[in-house]
Amino acid sequence: MRVLTIARLTILEASRRKLLIALGVLTLAVVVLTSWGFSRLPTMKDVTPAEVRLASSQLTILVAFMFSGVLALGSTLVAAPSIASDIESGIALAILPRPIRRSELLMGKWLGLALLVALYAALSGLLEMVGIWLGTGYLPPNPVAALAFVAAEGIVLMTLALLLSTRLAPMTGGVVALVLFFVAWIGGIALAIGLAFANDTITSIGIGSRLLIPTDGLWHGAIYYLEPSEILAAARAAGRARAGNPFFADAPLPLAYLAWVVAWLLAVLGLANWSFARRDL
Amino acid sequence: MEAADAASLAVHTQDLAKRYGKTVALSGLTMSVRRSEVFGFLGPNGAGKTTAVKLLVGLALPTAGQGWVLGAPIGDLATRRHLGYLPELFRYQGWMKAREVLGLHCELSGMARSDWKKEIELALDLVGLAERADDKVEGFSKGMQQRLGLGVALLGRPELVLLDEPTSALDPVGRHDVREIIRQLKARGTAVFLNSHLLSEVEQVCDRLAVVDHGRVIATGTMGQILGQDGAVRVRVTGLTPATRLGLQGYGSLEDEGEWLTFRGLAPERVPELVGDIVRQGGRVYAVEPRHETLEDRFLQLLKEQGD
Questions:
Q1: Do B93 and A91 touch (CB under 8 A)?
Q2: Does the pLDDT value for residue A41 go beyond 70?
Q3: So what's the pLDDT on residue A139?
Q4: CB of B91 within 8 Å of any CB in chain A?
């Protein structure tokens, strides 16, 4: 199974190039520091358990945002050069005349990168949640679901970067993917404002951006499972005052949207395979 | 030629063409490479040599024409199992050891795992890298990378090996080694497609060759056919008028260099007749030298004729 061979090669490369150890050490340092910070919350003067819980929940969302950002930027930096660099350096010229389909090479790389993204999301998320729990006794309502959405966000952006990598230079593909990521983030804010103020045009723009680049949609899927019920109730009561807050989600993602994300992934992967198969090397 | 006929050949192309936008890289390449022969593919820079090889191994898609490799249409997945290819500009994963690179290619080629060790050791010995087998490729010189590339191309006893400028980074010892390897490949029945602009290399190892220019074959055949069976004769002569000189063209393709006249395609038995004719027409002959044309001479002449 040549897809698995390439996936193994991709993971091995990340390990041999010391990406995994560098990421692991930095992540551990961040988890230790943030856990220490969380552990200070209950010791603050006149603080009540409810306030600790409230502050912990909000800080947890911010820390999750940081990790989702690391995943998004990291997976883009790794995926954008994955095909393009192999073509530029001549590695692809040596591999592809072997009895391997281009689609097998591409899907192998995707699988390897997707496993790395999922593994990082799971391990870093688990460590952080344990750190927060030890420091404050707080755990979000559904950390597993939240981490799954964070991982999915990384995989979506990685897949987009991989598509760009079949045609664009590594630097260009990376920059384009990151610009689209941040545009989608702003699109998510536009959607919240459009809905709060019943502005159809802004709402349509927000929906369009969330459909075209589902990273922000998935981020909101993650947020929802990090919010305790009292936060949800308070934010709902705030009405328009909460509009545009990119760290709040008032509902889980609808099933139709999740189906759309799956279709989006399949379509982008199909396009990447089509594009790579037709490229002269 | 039909596909069935192409099966008996290592490579056959019919009007194979490739365009990159408005640039014509290859315009109607028609050639055949027999099984078990060493075939030289010669041409100046930009003639389309590397494009042709890339089309044959499926790295680029032709815009017109057809091609068969080992009897199958070019790009055929199963056939690639029997191909070895050394690209001109390539790199292996610098973070891997030489042995691991060879292992990866064993795996990708679908070789039985039980054969890997033997094949890897064989390839390492053949290209002289046994002592560096466990070193990372990023520490290799260009020449050593080329040796490794050659080792990769020879894995699994391929039926056809395509070598694109295999000695461009090698020292004289390395070049000698490559020529020996090519001879060994031929001895065991492997067809070798040697893409090179090192004419002496081609002259020493190739059974047949094709000369390409501007994406088209301008000459093909055995070395003898390309060089011309009858060779050439140089005559140092004075006292001939321009008209008389022109009249001597009947003896062969004439190259007029002042006192020296070179007649190409002149049968040796006609040399006395030529000298007699020159003397009869008032010429004074000082020297008559048979000239053994080198491939370089012939190559340059072919390109010049093409340019004219």
A1: yes
A2: yes
A3: 94
A4: yes
